[in-house]
Amino acid sequence: EDPHRAIIRDGIPVNKSVSVQSLLYDSYTKYGSLTAGELERLRIKHRLKVVQSLEDGLSRNIMRSIVTDGYFKQEELMELLQFIREELLSGQKQQEERYDPSKPPYEAYCIDYELFQALFTGISPWGKGARPNDLSARLFRLMDRNGDGLLNVREVVTALGLTCTAELTQRLRLLYILHLPPLLPTADIESPTLSEDGAEIATEATDFFEDSLQLNTGSDTSTPVLERSASTSSQPPLGCEETWEVRSMNSLRALMDAPRGKGTPRMSQPHFIALWRSLHDILTAQPDDQQMYHAIASIGTLLLQLGDVGKKFYAARDESNESLVQAADQWQSPTDTVSDRNGNPGSLADAEWSIALEQFIATTLTGQPIVDFFSQRVDIVEAVSHMRRRRFTTIHTLADLQ
Question: Are 195 and 275 members of one domain?
Fold first, then answer.
């Protein structure tokens, strides 16, 4: 054997060839305590460490990519992200596709509407009312930019942040936008009949919104807004033009990023009534507070009066620009329809009554109880912990029933 090619280990030449008998003998002598079960245990142990290390690294990347949005603190983001991971790994919410590392980190986890609804009702103060499904469905659709029926982590954080920790005016702007078409189509609203002189305005606003409105909201478990989203995806097929609804949805999303909501469309009366009913539902979910009830009534009445004043102003302006004959012809044709600035068809009277986002925010800010409510910052860590405790209790209750 060539000594120049010999293997040297610790200064001692080692033969390159080893007999099988010697190898087996050394193995049983040195590692005889190892069993197949022990090897499997070690394999699983180290595999879990590797997987956990990868998950922790991915979580840190996700947090770095969205913490600059400013909605939540780092520990709050970690708690929320951990809860989403737990739900996805629980076996009830499975990821449809594996994460593509070429995509942004926050797209590693995506949730469907069912899980988002649970987060919305469990964390957001907007989800504590008697009818939270309507708001959660519209908010989900607004955040679902690609129309795939799923929200990534960033979209979830944005949705919850805008309702839990954002500035007062941002929250009011979002509430306003959630009641504009096509998020709230006119077909879903049946407005109350008002007399020509607006006699309804003289009634107590709380009774007006609770008793006079007939909204087609459906059952608490239905999500009609999401049912329409399948045919109005934000991503139209190749070679097809975007529909009006898709373009309008994209415009509403752009308004969320616009400074001070510049360019936000005016709101018609039926949509405003639906908005104020939602606001009433959110605020009355709080402990009984007479000041809150009074603020809701007085501000709602004032906004109705502002819209009625604007209606008279536009009517007077139209009469000065058109002949009396044309005005008489229009009055004799109640079935004629026009489109408002939102592109929503409606009667001539409906198109005249409207309020602006600035009017809504400025008037709402005069009610201190409402200002206090929308200025409160939700403790996300405590809210998520409460959801965990409730889930734990539910699981044990079901186990006892079985």
Answer: yes
The answer on 360 and 388 residing in a single domain is: no
* Terminal-residue alpha carbon distance, the chain: 74
Question: Whole-angstrom Cα distance, residue 196 to residue 95?
Answer: 55
In a domain, 281, yes or no: yes
Residues whose CB falls within 8 Å of the CB of residue 340, separated by 6 or more in sequence, listed in order: 265, 266, 268, 346, 350, 351, 354
Domain containing residue 186: 168-366
Q: Which residue is it, tokens 């000594």? A: 3
Query: Do 305 and 269 contact (CB within 8 A), yes or no?
Result: no
Q: What is the CATH number of the domain that holds 401?
A: 1.10.238.10
The yes-or-no verdict on residue 220 having pLDDT over 80 is: no
Distance CA 2, CA 87 (A): 64
Cis peptide before 182 (omega within 30 of 0): yes
Residues 109 and 174 in one domain: no
Domain count of the chain?
3
pLDDT one-digit tens code per residue, 244-295 = 566 778 888 888 877 776 788 999 999 999 999 999 999 988 776 788 989 9
* CA-to-CA separations, 341 to 189, 351, 357, in angstroms, rounded: 18, 9, 13
- What is the token pair recorded at 258? 């616009």
Output Rg (C-alpha) for the chain, integer angstroms. Answer: 31
Q: Are 267 and 355 within 8 A, CB to CB? A: yes
pLDDT digits (tens, 9 = 90+) for 52-74: 888 888 889 999 999 999 999 99
Listed in sequence order, the residues at least 6 apart from 208 whose beta carbon sits closer than 8 Å to its beta carbon are 192, 200, 300, 301
Q: 106 and 253 share a domain?
A: no
Determine whether 53 is exposed, middle or buried from the number of CB atoms within 10 Å of its CB (0-12, 13-18, 19+). Answer: exposed
